[in-house]
């Protein structure tokens, strides 16, 4: 498994539109890309102090992929490419390319509690236990 932290920039005045579009992207990835076990998108929380103070245009992805090939498939595949073509006016581009600062990560420790599992809209999913008939 490989994980990635990626930072994009939302264009000024486009935050609300970007959130709607990003929620749709997350839904598409969840439904159409089973090789993506985790795909989360965050905006800065200005109700608490962060150092350095992030920009109001910052957007952070924290995602996991089965392997590097799965990450490449996501980037080059129709779900992401079609979505990006639908929303070029929402995000910062440089020389015709989406401007992204990213870091690929290798997980060496830690955990994710089942209570953190959500659907693409961020709604907590009901944990399913092996003995649960539902």
Describe this structure in words.
This protein is of the alpha+beta class and 134 residues long. It has one domain (2-116): 2-Layer Sandwich (Alpha-Beta Plaits), CATH 3.30.70. 27% of the residues lie in helices and 22% in strands. It is built from three helices and six strands; from the N terminus they run βαββααβββ. The chain has helices at 15-32, 68-76, 78-86, and strands spanning 2-9, 38-42, 58-65, 93-94, 97-98, 101-105. The strands form two sheets. The protein has a four-stranded antiparallel β-sheet. A two-stranded antiparallel ribbon has the order 4-5. Strand 4 and strand 5 form a beta hairpin. The longest helix has 18 residues, at 15-32. It is globular and about 35 Å long.
Number of helices: 3
Helix content class: 25-40%
Gyration radius (Cα, Å) is: 16 Å
Architecture, CATH level 2? 2-Layer Sandwich
Provide a concise account of the structure shown.
This is ABM domain-containing protein. By secondary structure, this protein is α+β, with helices and mostly antiparallel strands. 27% of the residues lie in helices and 22% in strands.
Strand and helix map with partners:
Elements: E1 2-9, H1 15-32, E2 38-42, E3 58-65, H2 68-76, H3 78-86, E4 93-94, E5 97-98, E6 101-105
Antiparallel strand pairs: 1-3, 1-6, 2-3, 4-5
List keywords for this structure.
single chain, four-stranded antiparallel beta sheet, 134 residues, alpha+beta, 22% strand, 27% helix, 3 helices, Alpha-Beta Plaits, disordered C terminus, 6 strands, two-stranded antiparallel ribbon
């Amino acid at each position: 498994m490989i994980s990635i932290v990626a930072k994009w920039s939302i264009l000024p005045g486009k935050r609300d539109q970007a959130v709607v579009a990003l929620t749709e992207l997350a839904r598409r990835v969840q439904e159409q890309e089973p090789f993506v076990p985790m795909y989360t998108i965050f905006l800065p929380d200005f109700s608490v102090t962060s150092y350095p103070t992030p920009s109001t245009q910052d957007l952070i992805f924290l995602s996991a992929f089965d392997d590097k090939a799965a990450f490449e498939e996501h980037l080059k595949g129709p779900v992401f490419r079609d979505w990006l073509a639908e929303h070029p006016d929402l995000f910062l581009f440089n020389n015709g390319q989406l401007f992204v600062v990213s870091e690929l990560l290798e997980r060496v420790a830690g955990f994710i509690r089942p209570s953190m599992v959500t659907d693409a809209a961020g709604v907590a999913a009901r944990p399913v236990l092996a003995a649960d008939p539902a």
